[in-house]
């Protein structure tokens, strides 16, 4: 995440608007902090999740506070009715509440329509850390709270509640402190399941209001690169991972706080992103945390997993006996891997294919590399017993900076792509 590391960007929420990623984040003020000192909020944007630019700084003076604050905690933003709504935590001595701003722009020109909190400390002791969930029909919900979470449907105007907030029931919760949750909840949906998460812990339900059943934690030590274990919070790798889930270009991600790449100060954090895979039963596979991150690829490290694509069309990720693969659908399918970095030229490409089909597949693979400047076309016929590498040799050795795999043919539903590697 270029341009972000080392700047104290934390509590990231990433939203996708018009083909661009926007990160709404808190901001740890100084690497000398000995407490949570957060004087403003930041909005960053990216078109590839690798290169980020600071779009704007939102100050507490821009809100009903009308003055400075050290408690500019977690924030979130959504779009509805052609407007952008930005929700923020207001944390001061004896006060923990939520406000809302609105704009015609995702990054600037915010105005405070209420001139007061949306969620007040008069009603909730822990009324902070907002997260917004939107159903496909446009219905929007506010989730907030610490340890005990509350949910309320928002009115169509997005600046008032359509109902009294309800406490969310979680069955057998766990967290970094034991048999409890944490602060900074987030809610997202995939298929028929709703996922309520607090950091890297999560629970599932089939109703937005719950009850939610605790399922597990998505950070596992053996999947974390050694450099990311260097600095952790007192309770280890699963503590302090405030963040959010998002989907873009048919790929799922988790963005979260991480203190390992900075100075080891828990009050001056960074943000990071990992790919997310879901098992067939809906549960979340533990994520990989490494220095490659997302949206970029280092073939010198070995195989690139197909499920870690940046963009795909007409495909879906599925479990297989090797882990996770990309299943092709009938018709034209595509997988894109941009931002490839290497110090060597490659003479070819190996694609690890798994075929599970009673019929013979007849599939054409078009390989586009170097942002479309070179095209290598290979036609292959794969029978139902084939499993292994398909090797495609380039006419000339290439210094690759991107690869797109285009698939077309017959019986493609039986074909899965597991990985690609350069030779």
TrEMBL record:
Source species, domain of life: Bacteria
Keywords: Carbohydrate metabolism, Glycosidase, Hydrolase, Polysaccharide degradation, Xylan degradation
Entry-linked InterPro entries: Glyco_hydro_43, Glyco_hydro_beta-prop_sf, Glycosyl_Hydrlase_43_Enz
Pfam families recorded: Glyco_hydro_43
Family: Belongs to the glycosyl hydrolase 43 family.
PANTHER family: ENDO-1,4-BETA-XYLANASE, PUTATIVE (AFU_ORTHOLOGUE AFUA_2G04480)-RELATED
Protein's name in the database: Family 43 glycosylhydrolase
Organism: Photobacterium pectinilyticum
Taxon lineage: Bacteria, Pseudomonadati, Pseudomonadota, Gammaproteobacteria, Vibrionales
